[in-house]
Amino acid sequence: MSLNAFITKETVESDEDGPLSGKSIAVKDNISTEGLRTTCGSEMLEDYVPPYDATVVERLKDAGATIVGKANMDEFGMGTTTETSAYGPTKNPVDESRVPGGSSGGSAAAVAAGEADLALGTDTGGSIRCPAAFCGVVGIKPTYGLVSRYGLVAYANSLEQIGPIAPSVEEAAALLDVIAGPDEHDATTREEGEDSNFAAAADGDVEGLTIGVPTELVEGADEGVKAAFWDALDELEAQGAEYHEVSMPSTEKAVAAYYVIAMSEASSNLARFDGVRYGKSGGYEGNWNDAFARAREEGFGSEVKRRILLGTYALSAGYHDKYYAKAQDARAWVKQDFDAAFEDVDVLASPTMPVPPFELGESLDDPLQMYLADANTVPVNLANLPAISVPAGETDGLPVGLQLIGPKFGEETIVRAASAVEN
User: What is this enzyme's class at the first EC digit (predicted)?
Assistant: First the structure.
């Protein structure tokens, strides 16, 4: 099976003895690994070798893990299918005619195919949960600030988090235990809670758990996806949980707000890739502006260029208040809706993705289709909350993921609920 799950296949073994000894781990190719090429799925960084490890990579090594390579991804994390990579698309091991989801598609495919025991991905608007759902594995997007982002090549700083992908809920939670915790290199990490035991929460005990179902996140889903989703909730109810529908009207504006914010932050973050500070060197004759333009023209793919242009436009004079400021207002509305919902429920549930995995090439000519597919995942990132995707059944032989969303730093609750779904 040739899935193209890795950009760089190279083993880095640890001398330490720890909770991940004997475990092989794929690391998404936007997470810095000392001495190991880190490309972000882009020609712009095809020869970049970081001089240091990201904090999460240091923690993997300290825990005894063996890194088996850098996983393929949508270029700079911009995509929902792992088809925008400069190194070719990754295939879904469940059905090789389908995409694995994105942008952490290489990480999820590697785990689903058994090419790695565990993996790290990053989630800016669903990029761990989407491929986990499409490949039939477990993915956790942690609360913003639980896991250090030091060493992550930034796409949208205020939204993204590093998180685990694994075959089971307990394994994903155990990997989260290793990488979570404060970091002096990342001021956004919370200081308390250095020791965690999320894996112990995977006990399947949902007696008395109250689940809210946002109607707006279910209505537009594919019928087969909805059927698998409601079956999973009925199983949770049979184990002692109860569920009822809630309304979160702000989520209807979440996709638009998310893309304005994410693209705006991307246009700022990616300015450093100019062929001088970072990236493919122009080496061109003429003035600096010409060399800068040519380096970015040749180094970036079409999806990255699209998002940089849209983000720059949203931040430009005369349009900042019209687009970016309104997007931030919508973000605050989303947070308020989540806060209100968690006054009455312990977790929220929805289909992770509203549709089954796309066929390869299906969404490349229609970026809007790809953006809209993020409708159920991006509200979580806007509110900086934790969420997990756990396999919940199938539709036409393709995996369906159930998304469970928790309150801030409520990882134990969503791990417990997800383990009940798994059981």
Answer: ligase
